[in-house]
Amino acid sequence: MCAKRDLLLAAALLLCGWEIAALLLNSMALPQPWQVLTEFGTELLSGRLLDDILISGLRALAGVALGAVSAIPLGLLIGNEPALNRRLSPFIYLLYPMPHVVLLPLVIILFGIGNLSKIVLIGVIIFFQILVTTRDASRDIPPNYLYSLQTLGAGSWQLYCHVILPATLPKILTALRISIGTAVAILFFVESFATTRGLGYLIMDSWGRADYIALYSAITGMALLGFGLYLLLDRLERRFCPWNHLE
Amino acid sequence: MNSSSPLTCITELFMITVEQLSFCYQSQGVRQQVLQDVSFQVKAGQSCAIIGPSGCGKSTLLFLLAGLLQAEQGRVRLAEGARCGTILQNYGLFPWKSVAENVALGLRLQKVAKAECSLRVRAALEEMGLAAFSRYYPGQLSGGMQQRVALARALVIQPDILLMDEPLSSLDALTRERLQNLILELWQERQVMPVVVTHSIEEAVFLGRRIIVLGNAPGRIIAQVENREAGKINYRQSSLFFQRCNLLRSTLLEECDVRQA
Description:
Strand order of the largest sheet of chain B: 5-6-7-3-8-9
Order of helices and strands of chain A: HHHHHHHHHH
Distance between the termini of chain B: 54 Å
Largest interface: A-B, 20 and 26 residues
Largest sheet of chain B: 6 strands, mixed
Number of strands of chain B: 9
Oligomer: heterodimer
Number of helices of chain A: 10
Strand content of chain B: 15-25%
CATH topology of chain A: MetI-like fold
Structural class of chain B: alpha/beta
């Protein structure tokens, strides 16, 4: 209850700051929040904006899911199998720091200009973030946990199920929450070409028409999308890691 | 197989046999000898305490007994069919599992039927006075309660030997004394042989029927004390108890002096 009240208060303060900035700047490039929120409400009720939010949301979710599903098992394995770590670490060192967004032309050649290339690019970028966090988290598991389970007669599969995955889960979910911000940023980039649907397209289109109220309405939609996905992961974390929220 | 040969009978008297055991850790190409030529035996029905200065390889010895490490020289032999329960430092409880799930884990890994598993878990928790806390997470319990959960988890698999690595070191004096009594009860009433690695001289003398004293690293046995009175009523208050403690203290102090010199 207290957290909800604080959240509403923060939102109200942000709107106040926006209103003051709009009044001070007095430029059509920064409309007042009530104008944007009215446009947002109208477009949402018409159904058009809701469609775009859903399309963008599905692209972001699919990209994050693709990145997570491929990175989590690999990260857990690399973190716990020294031989695999030795072989793959050089590749991670070389590939992780590069700006993966430059792979866009290659991704388009391989997967076309439709939804798949957009999802794959988000997935590739998220993949490295989650891989590195998962690998480091699984390497940092106190060995006592592993020994304790071994003394109870566990094999390696059981070590993964009962210790390695649950011990790393809170950090994996934190990595996913961080990647949501990245996914939404990449979404804007990948929706700015070869599509007429999605919030990224709406932003670029409104910008091109110098329709700043529609532009900020789409930006509001993107912010709410990111917030919604963040909230979803927050719920998942509370559901799957209850021991992290003990009173 | 002739199970009645005299040699077999002699071997079976011993629950634990350690023969010329040596072990070294290898880290970044550097070998560090931890244990050197350690040999001892513990008879069935006895208890054992292992004591020595910090870094002398006590925990490594326990890990070798538990089968978590493999000896490179010498060997560790447990009586045929003997089952080990192990409690590591800081209890090794899983914070992501409830108390009941922690206790049930050993049985689940042994694929014990669900109904029997929950019966045995409930019985173990009741025995430890934790029945009301089965749904709690370890993080919600005090140190003493966590230790009892660890004991329940080790006991639910019905071990013959209970290996414990400094099990009571982080507890307050009163809780420590209560749990020492509990370990004693388990030894005497349920015939679970405790093998306790400890820093505490009093704990070693109170719990160890046989006390193995390790010297400075690389750990080797500098004394083995037969402590026949361990486990007797009011032993803790007797003058013999204090004499044994003092004897052990002077042995360990001499060893520390050697290291400092």
